[in-house]
What we know:
It comes from Pedobacter cryotolerans. This protein is 19% helix and 31% strand.
Amino acid sequence: MAEDINNDEKQIIAETIVGETTEEVVQHLNNPVTDLKPIVKQYLTEVKGVKKEGNKFYFSDGNARVEVRVVSDEIIRVRLAPHGVFLDDFSYAVPVVDQRVTTFRLEETETHYAISTSTVTCKVSKADFLVSFADNTTGMVMSEDASPMHWEENVEFGGYYVFATKDCKSEENFFGLGDKSGNMNLRGRKFQNWNTDAYSFGWDQDPLYRTIPFYIGIHESASYGIFFDNTFRSYFDFGRENNDKTSFWADGGELQYYYIHGPHMMDVVKRYQTLTGTHKLPPKWALGYHQCRWSYYPESRVREVAEGFRSNQIPCDAIYLDIDYMDGYRCFTWNKKYFPDPKKMIKDLLNIGMKTVVMIDPGIKVDDNYWVFKEGKEKNFFCRRSDDYFMEGHVWPGRCQFPDFTNPAVREWFGGLYKELVELGVAGFWNDMNEPAVFGAGTFPNDVRHNYEGYRGSHRKAHNVYGMQMVRSTYDGLKKLMRNKRPFTITRAGYSGMQRYACVWTGDNVATWEHLKLGNIQCQRMSISGVPFCGTDIGGFSGEPDGELFTRWIQLGTFSPFMRAHSAGDTSVREPWSFGEPFTSINRKFIELRYRLMPYIYSVFWEHHRYGFPILRPLAMLEQENISNHFRQDEFTFGDKILVCPVLEQGATSRTVYLPKGQWYNFWTHELLNGENEYNIEAKLEDMPLFVRAGSVVPEYPVMQYVGEKPIDELWLNVYYADYEVNSFLFEDHGDTFAYEQDIYLEKKFSVRGDGKNLFIEQTIEGLYTPTYELYDYNVIGVPFKVSKIYVDDKEVTDFSFDDKKRLRFKSNKNFMNIKIFGV
Ligand code: MIG
């Protein structure tokens, strides 16, 4: 009977049985009834005792063991060993577990054990082994088990399916999980993590390309995070199956998670980044506008597009070569017919300020005359199946084998293969198809074996980290090859911690208004999930945008950390001037704005790298105490000074915006508006509503056609008057080396404080870099009083004026410490 059911039907049956994994049901169906052992979930029972070893506490119920480890004052890790033996303590996401802990202690009462740090208390109830986490100051329980941790034997592969079920409070909302589709708030939904090539994904499609098993819960105005560091196929349910339960589980590996304390969402994200790392400072040119297409070829077409930017006077820093630059899609080769002299082309492009970025895929063509394949084969670097056959699958080059990037020796080898491309002058590298994607089959079968850093594993365990380890190999290889230059790398697939090696794009989206909305949410979600350097294919990868949609997408993209237009090969041309007027001029205006804001954007990246701040901050993060913000998903701040309200509706000429607490200047009109209000703001096609927080200092560069085109003679500082004190940052350095790791940079802090009659600006400077300019050129917006005198470090400045827009203009030395602007 069971044999008559095909896999699709099994899937359907599996999905209708609530609370059981698909695998479990498929297994039921595969086994003749006589073989069926009852499948039982086993739960922790009663705590029999506890043992302390340094910062680790081991609880036992006589059989299973649980480790509770104090990672920092605000982070606690929990692990479960069903029969007492913990798995190897290795993680691709978290290179170093232990952080600084000031103090912690264990207390025992009649009913429970309590481990407390200076901030959090983790309780384990004796009778039923329930684990909870509470805030020491408020006493509020942030997260607690609804049932004891449980597991179920996996008879086919060994190991266990592992489960955790926690309370879901009635007013609780959920955010994070990185690469997910649909609404930002995750409450009421169920998700799966299994890196998938999701061409033209839909609004609620799941899973997508990347796995970030990290979420943030918010209830009663306080946030906490859970990072379930498990690379197997994993699942999250936020009150979907059961309105008052949140659960997460995986098809194998260990039940291992970090509780990350808030109480602010920003604290949770920053602490998650202390575990998994931040993005390194990208080369500054990578923050410019990039132009991509599948594919620009031959060489004459590449030159034509590059020159098109210069003749149209539209700034651009990079042009991309998609797979067609290769010889029969063989990685690290060139199609000599299309590109007879890549070195000369790349050099000529550089001469007009245009960098070249190329794609590299994981599939290596099976071809004994192809050096990469030969080397990989000789070194035994390709993945094998359980019975020792090579893992073979079809991708662009035809029949391929795939390097096992979870083997450090393979990564070292593959990273070195970029040598020739680097010598040719290629500036950036784009790793695609690394879910890994295989035509037909989708991905590798489960039985493929991986080295997994010597800890070994099947593809079930390595699948979700394969892409991350590929781009790690790319990044590390480039870092060596490029000496002290910062590599620029992009990856499609990844796992938590991928931000240490690459930026990402959201994959194959579609040229529709729905996808514009979705891309806006996706970038914000990635940003608060530890992967801040993210962008969408501007214009939509497949399908045809009209001029309006493309322009609205350029406007959103101006404030995407990664700004790149890309399109599939079967679509019409898609450069910023392809749609004619008025679109070309508006696209130019916004791409120019990106370059004008470059010193601000670069400083925001520094704040992320150094301090772990996300780059895009959704309203839910800005004002988590305001529950309606948990559902407002179409506005965000870029850094904390610029509020971006993209226009996402076709034909819109205005839109409603919500301004958070404080006062905000309309970026275009300089009108000052009070926060905690909604406004209807004009948003004709040439405008996208943008606001600047009162009290900000926003540095600005002159428009350039590419990063570094002109030296900065005087740095323009836009100061937005406020009746209260606000701090701003400015980061400056060489822009493309690692000298910042040796303190060769400047981190400047400006504090701006007005009192209705006077305005005070102070500056502190840290670091060792010397900028090219001597003077700041001020542009003070919103001064509410008539100016009588200006002093810079107590020396009077007589040369000041108000321009036609009522902006106060004067200059100062770049090293000033304080400025006093007095009213009459
Ligand atoms: O099977 O290289 O997402 O950006 O242009 C498609 C061709 C392979 C998918 C990527 C897309 C890229 C395309 N690639």
